[in-house]
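Pilot study result, target chain (253 residues):
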Amino acid sequence: MKIIQLLLIIIISGIYFSCSSGTETVGLSPEERFALAKAEFEDEDYEEALNELQAIILQFSGTAIIDDAQYYLGLCHYKRGEFIRAAFEFSKLIRDYPTSEYVKEAQYMLAESYLELSPHYSLDQRFSRKAIEEYQAFIDFFPTDQRVPEVEKRIALLNDKLAEKIFTSAVQYRKLNNVRSAIIYFDLLLEKYPDSKFADVSSYNKITLLVEKSQHEEALKEANKFIQKYSNSPYLKDVQSIVGNLNKKVTEK
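Predicted structure:
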């Protein structure tokens, strides 16, 4: 008899706790549910916050709180290191709720998510390009935001990464004595990333390759462009010396 009573107590207790945990948000308004989810987020309980935010989005899709929930859904994924999912959720907010007060922050966090996904320069750089695209969109739509100078620095760093990938290929071709391909890649870098930290060294390499190929007039033209554009480059003196030698050769012709 005592065993049966004990089993009944355990069963009743289980039902009670199950019901209490499942119904603790029943009757709460959308705003109250969101406040609960936000509190969980601020306590860094991102899993619980995610569960609550997903429930809010399903149950209160037509309410004013929905864009709040959508934004924090993206933040939760970001904080959990789930950057692809975070990017998806921020993109969804921008697309589905274009008048939301969170659009600016979502655009910024969308770019930040792609920045986190940007790999070493030697790997596929599609996420780097996406980060640049979304940072540029942030600047275009919110040009007076105080974060714009920092965003411009991040774009420059990402461009340097893309430039480094091209530069490495150009150098590799030069080592293989494939001069034509090396020049093509140096030209590509100078065309796409003329302000990157690899631009002056690429221009310098192109000049020296043209000299090696005895293309003196073209080399002189590139060297004069170099002097005008990269006056603070550590290669400036070398290029000036090349110009002096080339002028003599061109004159002798």
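One observation from the pilot: The chain is about 75% helix and 0% strand. A full batch analysis is planned for the follow-on phase.
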